[in-house]
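Check this.
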Amino acid sequence: LQFRVRGKEDLDAVAEAQDLQRILAEMEDVTDLARERMEAAVTQADRAAGTLARGDTDEAAKEVGTAAGQFGELARQVAALLAEEAPDRIAMARDMTAGLAEGHRMLGRELSPPPDPASAGAAVRELMETKPNDKASGLAERARTVRDVLGALAGSERIEDGEAADRVSELMVRREVGETLDRVENLPEQIGEKPANPETLVALDDSADRLEVTARELDRLYRSLVAPRIEQLRRIEEEAVTLNNQMNSIETSEGVGQWQQGLEDLLEEMEQAEGGGDTREELAQMAERGVLPSPADWDSGRTGFFGPPEVYRTRMPLLVEEVQRQIQELVLMDLASDRDEPTPPAYEHLVERYLKVLAADGK
């Protein structure tokens, strides 16, 4: 979601934004706030394109800057709302909350009584020239994003979100997250000229403390959810790898029947765990329609082994890769959440294994 002043390309960007708006309107997991923001961003982008068409490039640049900020915040929000896994949504909300805390610290420094400009360094002078209201407005919009993402997860009716939804809901009540976000959203009304009064600085510092505590709580929640999730997917991966390896070395019709039963059990387990992605869904749909190959569809074994149908030969490796991808994403996201902490012992073998897989894929 980007928008820049570049002549005809701006008109193309407006058309693309309007297309995105129609797509978002049809998505079930997109919230009312996201749709409202999309409408406002498209309107602003259209206004900027019109201003540019009239030749007022200076004003168009300002309007485009506003539209770019709107699209940027919308992109973060939609990415969090549409993340496949509940832990991913929690991780994104955690990172945004931690960013809010740091933003409060920075704003407090900007609003503090400045040093003598004559003796201040370039970095300090730059801070002294910033507009606190613009930063406060950005923090307020980010707070609305965090509230929306956490609220959507807490109210989720998806079966696989059950535990995460309950625990996010409990956290929001216990830590009074809504009250803290209220304070952030009202921040623009409280920010005046620099330097700020002592009460405002104290309030900023207190809000930063609250936000940091919330971010740490979200991190603990994320880690408590992702560890058993990784272990669950790891077991599924082992079963999928075993079936994939056995597929080309079955010597009897009884073995074919056992393999087929193993696949059916695996698909059921994957469905419950939301694993296997599109490949699992494709095979499950074939089973529901009664078109999944049966033992009778295997080659009779003229070479000494039964030959699997084309569907199995092509889909089983993809099924394994999809589960491995899901595990990789969870492991790497957990590592990215705090690079200063040592890898938990339970993760060490997983981390080493999947980093090697990623390295091999990149060659």
